[in-house]
Amino acid sequence: MSFSKEFDGKVALVTGGSSGIGKAAALAFAQAGAKVVIASRGVEEGEQAVHEICARGSDAIFVKTDVSQANEVEALVNKTVDTYGRLDCAFNNAGVGVLRPLINYSEDDWDYVMNINLKGVWLCMKYQIKQMLRQDSGAIVNNSSLAGVVGMANISVYTASKGGVIAMTKATAIEYAKSGIRINVISPGFIETPIFEKVPTERVDQFLEGLSLPPMGRFADSDEVSGAVLFLSLGRSSFITGQNLIIDGGYTAQ
Question: Which of 10, 19, 94, 173 is most buried when burial is the number of CB atoms within 10 A of its CB?
Fold first, then answer.
């Protein structure tokens, strides 16, 4: 999906923008003309993503951020505005996963997943919306997961966090529907991303064992998700808010 220079003059913020879907979205925003702020805990990867954007003639900065910490999220939004003067689009993508049966989760596992995946989205929206209210405009896209829509074994806490993102997106979209701010959520499934790359192979195999491929018969790549993020951030989607766009190759159509 081509967006030419439809984001000229716009400023886009991407959390978890150093790899996977986040990096693909950051590159796509930049290619479409936006100035991009990449936030991530991974400094080396985040700075590399910025280098790639700038090498292509676009403008980007990296801000090291832990989205579970309010002071760091507030500083991220302030840095965005201090650097570029405004915030037009935000893709709240940062997320983590822990793969194990429910009874084997520890309280630390619960806190880790919930603090990044759910609390992190809440904090990001809190400070992003405050800025967007000053502008009377803005578009936010949150990243959930197919696992937030359908049940999947061995990732129950991850599933709970992602289901919470969907519910919170809908409620917040209603709150700010008359303020010029649109808030939507995407739920990708079967995407080749590094989120579980540190998980032992046997656990990944156990997770995949009970799942069938979607009707399209393959996994998607991150670029196939980033197009949806940009579409939901554009003026051409101006009457779309509070929606969950499922990107799953037809899995939930069965």
Answer: 94
Complete domains list, the chain, with CATH: 11-247 (3.40.50.720)
Query: pTM value?
Result: 0.93
User: Do the beta carbons of residue 30 and residue 108 sit within 8 Å?
Assistant: no
The per-residue pLDDT for range 104-153, each reduced to its tens digit, is 999 999 999 999 999 999 999 999 999 999 999 999 999 999 999 998 88
Total residue length of the chain: 254
pLDDT of residue 208: 56
Rounded CA-CA distance 162/144 in Å is 5
Report in angstroms the alpha-carbon separations of 75 from 19, 60, 123, 168: 22, 17, 12, 23
Which regions of the chain are under pLDDT 70? Answer: 1-3, 192-211
User: What residue type is assigned to position 112 of the chain?
Assistant: Y
pLDDT value at residue 210: 58
What tokens were used for 183?
């808030």
Contact 98, 113 (CB under 8 A): yes
Q: Which residue has the tokens 């800025």?
A: 131
β 89-92/244-247 pair status: unpaired
User: What are the residue numbers of the active site?
Assistant: 158
User: What is the rounded end-to-end Cα distance, in angstroms, of the chain?
Assistant: 26
Non-local CB neighbours of 28 within 8 Å, separated by 6+ positions: 3, 223, 226, 227, 229, 230
Closest CA to 207 of 97, 130, 116, 62: 97
The first and second tokens of residue 138, run together, are: 């803005």
